[in-house]
Amino acid sequence: MPFAVPMIWAEPKDHVSDCYFCQTSIKGINHKSRNSVNYPNLQSAQRPIPHSDNLPVPQRPVNMDDVTEESVSESSDSDPTFEPSTSNKEPHFITQNDLNDLVRDLDLSKRQAELLASRLHDWNLLEKYQNIRIQISTYALLKFFLKMAI
I need a surface site. Which of 101, 104, 105, 150 has the fewest CB within 10 A? Predict the structure, then answer.
């Protein structure tokens, strides 16, 4: 049976008196007595509303020519001034500073960083005429040697 309004679930205000699952007693219910379950009507779980004369079953259009642009609902959240960051179709080439930040953020070793830079270079994602330099901070070197000492 299709419903005009589906079941609406909300956060219960009180776990003891407003929790749908706590209020539904299913103890001793089996296949034969499943129709005797008493489901509560709570504010946190509003029951679905079946179709009626006031809420008829919507009819699907026979063909898509009947659907006009005006009948297609637009989201009220749309902002005409919003421009997504992906609107620029140009690729972003990685600079030396971007590469250094990425290596630091991913906590890559020198060997891993060189492999990453090599792959980016092979895929033509690095800026042109850029030398691949991997810089390891003093902290990273100390961390590496301290791990070896332990």
Answer: 150
